[in-house]
Amino acid sequence: MTELSLAVPAELLERLRSIAAQKESSLEESALEALTEYAESWEDFNRTVEHMEAGKEERTVLRAVNE
User: Fold this and answer.
1) Domain carrying residue 39
2) Is residue 6 in some structural domain?
3) Would residue 52 count as lying in a domain?
4) CB 30 within 8 A of CB 20
5) Roughly what angle, to the nearest 10 degrees, separates helices 10-23 and 27-53?
6) Which residues, in sequence order, are CB contacts of 19 under 8 Å at separation 6+?
7) Residue 18 is assigned to a structural domain of this protein
8) Structure pTM?
9) pLDDT of residue 67
């Protein structure tokens, strides 16, 4: 595994430590999980945008009953 160093605000670090403690995991495990979810979310978003731009994504239109 490759190391990554980053500076985070003290408040965020405390929030991450608190979450890790609640999950009974390490700060590193919680940070890796958060970064993985962030990357997956952006990848999903980008795939959706690409599909929509290529006309591959079907779109559902919802309308209010009284319109």
Assistant:
1) 27-67
2) no
3) yes
4) yes
5) 100
6) 30
7) no
8) 0.69
9) 61
Instruction: Determine the Cα–Cα distance for residues 30 and 22; give it in Å rounded to an integer.
Output: 10
CB contact set of 48 (below 8 Å; sequence gap of 6+):
57
Given a contact cutoff of 8 angstroms between Cβ atoms, the answer to whether 45 and 37 are in contact is no
Residue 57 pLDDT > 70: no
Does pLDDT of 54 surpass 90?
Answer: no
* Number of domains, the chain: 1
Q: pLDDT tens digit string along 16-49?
A: 999 999 999 999 999 999 999 999 999 999 988 8
Residue 29 · residue 20 · CB < 8 Å: yes
**The pair of three-digit structure tokens given for residue 4, joined into one six-digit string:** 């990554």
At residue 16, the pLDDT reads 93
Q: How far is CA 12 from the centre of its chain?
A: 16
Is 38 a member of any domain? yes
Q: How far apart are CA 23 and CA 32, in angstroms?
A: 13
